[in-house]
Design brief:
The complex is a heterodimer. Chain A is an all-alpha fold. Chain A has ten helices and no strands. The chains are: A mainly alpha, B alpha/beta.
Chain lengths: 254, 257
């Protein structure tokens, strides 16, 4: 209770600080007031865009891309991650390739995705998928590796577990905490990079909205888009944390 | 029902070589364990005593020879052979109750029966009050009690214990030895117990089997003719300790050479 009160005060304080600073600046013109939009101006942009239905369209477009890209990457990361975590020769082959690809900033490949997949949805979805795959895959493989599978499998087998029991009652629950944490990190990352994917060659989405703000010199729209992304990100994270806690109970990530 | 005529566990000319060309880890071990008997296998580290236990459990296949339980050849792990591991091997996502009823659940026993089983064995190891806790919330000694209850709740024909108290501090270790001895007086299980503690072996065993170092084979068998309830400070107890220590020391010295 008290920590949530502190949070509310902190957020409110930040807003007040922003309001005071920009409003004073509008009077004394320390910098050009257009470059430092006040909360009221940002709110007005948000209201206008909401009224026209534009805002919902942009948010939904972005979210749908995130869902698709992240979904594909999640399926691949869980599949390959568990496989590589369990199978030594596969791990030896995968490791050097991943170590080479991983340090490349995904944005460096963005133009390549546009070349390959064109300006439509496919390039955005693929880019999000590519970006989120590696961190999720690496985290899942590592968490599977960390489980002392042999010992638990032996324990279960001498209690009468069949092969199917071993997968369902030992491997899956053992790998679950690591997988869930990796997926949560992946969703966060997807929301992070969607903007980049929408900066180039998009006609909708929050990234596009922000770029439009630059093109038409509307800083309030840029700030509104950015704040909305922050809000979405923390909302999704809160939801996922709650889901994680429900799913795993009192058990911390193994 | 099986006839109680033959030995419960028969280890027949069991040898194990891990990679061809290397020295065998285990060379021709013959050992019978009678029903209701508790046999301790004792030896220096690396003598293959855990390898032997893993073969009986069905986790490893012997290179030659065979293990029989109730006359049937062991080909893999099975619920007739319960195992208690040094590292506890509890399922961290299950509560104490969930761990203890893991075996009965696999056999699809009805819920009411499962509850009775869990209650009975948690009472036996004194953990009834901790039934809803997760393993991470328990001390090492408590975890091992859960593991013992889990093995017993599955009603195995034999129980295999691989240095079960090896990771515990001296105090807890003796407490658990006391409890196991008490449990054995109630349950009368057939138990094969691997340890490197001579004191532990003399305290618990009906027979102590001392193994040689590499390659492991049986060096000497000591039947322990002490009362069921044992006194660690009785002169007969310390006499056994001294006798066995002498034999074990020869082997430890051999490893050093």
């Amino acid at each position: 209770m008290r920590s949530s009160a502190v949070r509310a005060v902190a957020i409110l304080g930040g807003l007040v600080l922003w309001a005071v600073f920009t409003t004073v600046n509008a009077r004394v013109e320390l910098v050009n007031p257009v470059l430092l939009p006040t909360p009221v101006e940002v709110g007005r942009v948000a209201l206008d865009l909401t009224a026209s239905g534009e805002l919902a369209r942009h948010v939904l477009t972005s979210l749908w891309r995130v869902v698709q890209g992240f979904g594909l990457a999640a399926v691949a990361a869980v599949g390959f991650g568990v496989l590589v975590g369990l199978c030594v020769p596969l791990r030896l082959m995968a490791e050097p390739v991943i170590e080479l690809l991983r340090p490349i900033p995904p944005l460096a490949f963005l133009p390549m995705f546009l070349v390959w997949f064109g300006l439509g949805e496919a390039s955005k979805v693929a880019f999000i998928g590519y970006t989120t795959f590696f961190p999720m895959f690496v985290a899942i493989a590592a968490s599977v590796l960390r489980i002392d599978v042999v010992l638990l499998l032996r324990a279960a087998a001498s209690l009468g577990a069949t092969r199917a029991d071993l997968v369902r009652r030992v491997m899956l629950p053992a790998a679950l905490p690591g997988i869930v944490v990796a997926l949560r990190v992946g969703v966060g990352l997807a929301l992070f990079v969607i903007v980049g994917a929408e900066f180039m060659g998009a006609d909708a989405g929050l990234g596009h909205l922000i770029m439009e703000g630059r093109t038409f010199f509307n800083p309030a729209q840029i700030v509104m888009g950015a704040l909305l992304l922050g809000l979405l990100g923390s909302l999704v994270n809160t939801l996922l944390l709650a889901a994680e806690r429900r799913l795993l109970g009192g058990r911390a990530a193994a | 029902m099986t006839t109680a005529a033959g030995p419960k566990i028969q280890i027949q000319r069991v040898a194990k070589t891990f990679s061809s060309g290397r020295a065998p880890a285990l060379a021709e071990v013959d050992l019978d364990v009678a029903e209701r008997e508790l046999v301790c296998i004792l030896g220096p580290s690396g003598c293959g005593k855990s390898t032997l236990l893993n073969i009986v459990a069905g986790f490893l296949a012997p290179t030659t020879g065979a293990v029989r339980v109730d006359g049937r050849v062991v080909t893999g792990p099975a619920p007739e052979r319960g195992v208690v591991f040094q590292e506890y091997a509890l399922f961290p996502w299950l509560t104490v109750t969930g761990n203890v009823e893991f075996g009965p659940r696999l056999q699809s026993r009805p819920a009411a029966e499962r509850r009775r089983t869990v209650d009975r064995y948690l009472d036996l190891v004194g953990l009834r009050a901790h039934a809803d806790k997760l393993p991470a919330q328990l001390s090492g000694g408590m975890k091992q009690r859960v593991a013992i209850a889990r093995a017993l709740a599955n009603n195995p024909a034999v129980i295999l214990m691989d240095e079960p108290f090896g990771a515990l501090d001296a105090q807890t270790r003796e407490t658990l030895q006391d409890e196991l001895s008490k449990i054995q007086r109630v349950e009368h299980k057939t138990i094969l117990f691997v340890t490197h503690s001579i004191r532990e072996a003399v305290y618990l065993a009906d027979r102590v089997v001392v193994m040689t170092s590499v390659p492991g084979r049986i060096k000497q068998v000591f039947p322990i003719k002490l009362p069921e309830v044992r006194d660690r400070f009785a002169p007969e107890f310390t006499q056994y300790e001294a006798d066995i220590t002498r034999v074990v020391k020869e082997e430890v010295a051999k490893v050093r050479e």
